[in-house]
Amino acid sequence: MNPEILTQLVTMKMPFGKYQGYLICNLPESYLVWFKQKGFPAGKLGILLSTMYEIKLNGLEYLLVPLKSMSK
């Protein structure tokens, strides 16, 4: 896994939609599941959303805690 992707999960905000302005790491799991069913967008955003989906699905959110504290 590219460490830059993990950093972007805690720094990049959702650019559109119901959760516009939320950090990708703070999106609710239900929203990520919806994207999984409908299809993730192309490009960098899609990679970040699908990565966050997998992290939440597998209960790995704790991996982002140190990155969150570093980005403040």
UniProtKB/TrEMBL annotation:
Classification via Pfam families: QSregVF_b
InterPro entries the UniProt entry points to: QSregVF_b
Organism: Paradesertivirga mongoliensis
Protein name per UniProt: DUF3820 family protein
